[in-house]
Every structure is written in structure tokens, then in C-alpha cells.
Amino acid sequence: MTYSIYPLGDQAVTIELESELNVAQWQKLRQLAQTLEHIKPDWLIEYIPAMTTLTVLYNPLILQKQYGAKHSPYEIVCEEINILFKQTPPHTTKKVKQIDIPVCYGGQLGPDLLDVAQYTKLTPKEVIQLHSERTYTVYMIGFAPGFPYLGELNQKLHIPQRTSPRLFVPAGSVGIGGEQTGVYPLDSPGNWQIIGQTPLALFLENADPPSLLKSGDQIRFVPISEAEYTTLRNKKG
User: Fold this and answer.
1) Do residue 152 and residue 203 come from a single domain?
2) Which InterPro entries match (predicted)?
3) Are 112 and 191 in contact (CB under 8 A)?
4) 107 and 224 co-located in one domain
5) Range of the domain at 40
6) Euclidean distance between the first and final Cα of the chain, in Å?
7) What global pTM score does this model have?
8) pLDDT above 70 (res 132)
9) Residue 127 in 3-state DSSP?
10) What is the DSSP letter of 96?
């Protein structure tokens, strides 16, 4: 795996993947975060995982006290990270959470399904099949509270985002944006291609935790009929 490390101020560094994002590459960053969590070095303040980066905040005074002034804290942290990348990740007993997300594709709930089919030269049925046959990994939560960025999307479904964003995308909308797919957890603007909608609530403000999904979870989209969607929606209400 190729990566670069660059400073972010005088108390943080960011590790960034240089190769194309995929689950295997993302997993390497996740393993580094798990290693930091496991060994908890004295100099570590916090780490912030993202989709293609991991930012590490450190205490330069502790580093200088431990290693002296021969090298800068930045140089020491870079060397520590390079060493940790080569280590075997710690064994974890945590089970990966797997969630089925019911989706009603097309129609008023998936207004862009026909456009996606036309762009990809597939039938709407083939788009639905390709989109729902994979198990996706939640790379990160971002953009909006509870919004999951998912991979890896079948290459046949890669499609540019809309050139003109919608001012309103209903909560539960399932979309494709470029090389990824995701679900809008809240009503919001958006420019992803909307191919369906789920009656499942992905974000509840008063729940603990409020987000149904977190980084590392695995999800599968399960096609349902409009009648099933209505039934599940009414149960939720």
C-alpha cells in the first residue's frame, strides 16, 4: 500500500492513501487506527479516521521528553507510524455489524433509476440487481449526520453526480454518486442519483447512538415492493 504523511500544524499529521480507494486499502487505515487504540502510546492525543485519511494528533512535549531533541516531533511521529504500519494488527473479538436495508427502487421513490439505466446501458432491473447483490462496507459517516459512504460499488453502476443538485432529497433516499453509493439519513439538498428509498430510519436524534450505522459496518440492500415499503413506513410512524 502506498501512502503519504504530511503535517497538519505542529501537533498533528495526516496519513493519506495514494492509490485508488477500495475496501482492502481502507482496511489498512482502519487497522492502523485499531493498533493506535490498542497500544495507546503516551504521545497520542486523538486520531480521526476518514475515508482515505487518518489524522493523528500528538503531544510534541512528550515526544521530545522521550526521544530528545535530535529529531523533531513530526519526524518521530512519522517514523512511529511507518513502524506501526508494518506491525500485525491487534486481534479483535468485535463482530462486524451486518444490517439489511430494505429499498423500494424506482418510481416516485427512485426518480433517477431510468436515467441511471440509460447512462449505464442497463435495464432498470439490471441496475437494481447489481446494486442489491453486493455487501457494502461503511467507509465513513459524513456530509450529514448518519450519512454512510459505502463501497465498493459495481463499476457498471459508476455514474456522475447530477449537474443540478436537488434542493430537497427526502430522508431514506438511496443514491449513487460517482463511484459510491449511500443513503440520505435526513431531508437535505443533494446531487446524487436517487434510485430508491428505504423506510428504515438511519438517524434518530434522541437515540443512543443516534446513527444506525458506523464506520466498519456492513450492509446489504434488499429490494422490496411499494406495498411493502408503505407497510414498513407506517409501522415506523
Assistant:
1) yes
2) CT_C_D (IPR003833), Cyclophilin-like_dom_sf (IPR029000), PxpB (IPR010016)
3) no
4) yes
5) 3-87
6) 47
7) 0.83
8) yes
9) helix
10) P
186 located within any domain: yes
Identify the pLDDT of residue 30: 86
Q: What is the rounded CA–CA span in Å between residue 230 and residue 113?
A: 19
Of 130, 133, 35, the C-alpha closest to 90 is: 35
Reported as a single tens digit per residue, the pLDDT across 72-107 is: 999 999 999 999 887 766 655 567 899 999 999 999
Q: In what order do the strands lie in the sheet with 44-49?
A: 3-7, 12-17, 53-58, 44-49
Cell numbers for 104? 423500494
- DSSP designation for 162: P
Q: What is the pLDDT of residue 59?
A: 96
Helix (H, G, I), strand (E, B) or coil at 119: helix
Element at 138 (helix H, strand E): strand 135-141
**114: β partners:** none
* Assigned C-alpha cell, 21: 480507494
For the stretch 11-64, pLDDT in tens is 999 999 877 777 888 888 888 888 898 889 999 999 988 888 999 999 999 998
Query: d(Cα 16, Cα 49) in Å, to the nearest integer?
Result: 10
Residue 164: Cβ-neighbour burial (10 angstroms; 0-12, 13-18, 19+): exposed
Q: Are 21 and 51 in contact (CB under 8 A)?
A: yes
